[in-house]
Amino acid sequence: MLETIRKNVAGIFAKVLIALLVLSFAVWGVADVITGVGRSVVASIGGNDIGSEEFRQEYQQQLDTMSRQFGRRLTPTQARAFGLENRVLETMIGARAVDNHAKELDLSITSKAVEDSVRKDPIFQGADGQFDPQRLQGILYRVGATEEYFLNSRRQDTVREQLTSSMLENVTVPKVLSDLIRTYRGEERVIEYFSIDPVKSLKIGEPAETDLRKTYDDNKAQFMNPETRQVEVLMITAKDATKKLSFSDQALKDEYEKRKDSYSVPERRKVLQLSLKDKATAEKALAEIKSGNSFEEVAKANGASATDIDLGTVTKSQLIDPKIRDAAFALVKDKVSDVVVGRFSPVLLKVTEVQEGKVPSFEEVKDRLRDRLAELEAPGEIRKLQDQVEDNRLAGKSLQEIANLLGITYKNVSNVERNGNGSDGKPAFKFGGSQNIISTAYGSSVGVENEIVELEDGGCAWVRVLKVNKSTQKPYDTVTDGVKKLWAENQTKSEVSKLSKSLVEKIKAGTPFAEVAKTAGSEVKTSPAFKRNDSLPDVTAAGVRRAFTLKKGEAASTVSTDGKTRVVFLVKDIKAAKAGKKEDEERLDEEILGQLRTDTIAQYVGALRKRMGVELNQQLIDQTVGITPRGY
Length: 632
What we know:
This protein starts with a helix and ends in a 7-residue tail after the last helix. The radius of gyration is 34 Å and the shape is extended. The protein has four domains: 2-172 and 586-625, Triger factor/SurA peptide-binding fold (Orthogonal Bundle); 188-223 and 479-575, no CATH class; 228-247 and 367-471, Chitinase A, domain 3 (Roll); 265-355, Roll (Chitinase A, domain 3). Residues 1-37 have low confidence and may be disordered. By secondary structure, it is of the alpha+beta class. Helices cover 51% and strands 15% of the residues.
């Protein structure tokens, strides 16, 4: 949410800073030491602390965004694999470093200055170039932010902009650099090419027995029975945990009273809002409405369209300004309010539709309440069961005995392959996180006590390897068809490679390209003009790159896109970069400028980090993001 607002409203230098803080830490890193910060502090730079709750909110927001992109909920372990927690933490530490420096320099901004900057921001101005409070409210509504939150964020960004503007505004793009990059990127090639047809151009005979034997001996790794393992797994799944939870009707009723509003359907109203520049103008507009003019007519006379005044059908909580919110939901349908002085301007309100709210009965939501409580209590129940499992393991009980004692899931699977399949060729474990179990099993030895494995539903598992069935060589007589096929593939590739070299040599010697193509059983094609980063349907990216190393009239070959043959090509034409459109040149300059600013910010934040020192509480970070510490 914060990033969305900043993309819409921050000044150029503040936006550059926010966007590049993560990049700067990619250069300089994060952690210096791991001790010395408070119990509720996940990180600190120069004494400026980042609390666990603040970090959790930012992390959760980014995790939600990433999960939506993947189309499924990511586990903390998966998020860590993508570096999410470090990315969030690095951004927050970088911002704190700049804030510290601003404080050292006694940089600050008054509330009035912040509000004035909002009024002057073109993002919030209407067609007349004047501040339009409805545009601001629309943006805040879309990102779900309050005015207070927005103004505080704006204040921080403005102070950072003050600090970084003088640094970044002196960064310019050298013309010689932009010209070189433009020339490099804009140069084009046109090639003639053909694919060697192995069937028409080659004659691959039948292999001798010695050839097949040699192919088998040289490629024994391709003719192996895979290693399999017998694995027993004790699991505490979320389902195991919730089965053990029960809730009295009184507990469910208490939860109902606490969460009644969240299950309720709130009243919704279609609200029209006309924002005026001052109270006198608003009073005049109200008088015109009272004299018989419609709300819409008066709005149009004051420069507001039907779209401008329509806030849509909203709940009370969706209206940000408390005065406007209370007035709108106190109005009788089709009546116009008195002048309401909002935070940014006086307004007139009209409600054209009222959808009554509904509070469901306890019985209607009883099952949902039980599921909700079970979801909340499941992590605690999982930890409780985890402790009981460990106590029983220490007492010498087997995993199967523990499963029977505690009523949790146990599986004993023979012949599990490294890819997770069982002897039937189907996945041996069919639940989220099963790959972690397979990885643990294949990273372990027989009888070894392994670390706890996380499951995607928040549960955990204990994995023990009971037996290893080592990979065995398939006898030659059982794989002769596969060996013969591999020999033919290898022979074809070898002959195609030799042929492509001889064809390129013929072209270099002056044989016409079309004539050479005929000997390869193919016809010549001509590509469109392409740049270095363009792709061609019949030529690989490596082939495109190779074309840009050749002069006009020179030839070479590259592997085909399907990997089965080779493509021979000749550079037919070289076209110098064309003069680009003004907007394209400006876009390139902006790209280069962004990279130069990245370097500047990286050096600046890196220097602050080195001087101020960074402290991390890794144990609290793990706890905040939901990672189970090793050994627990």
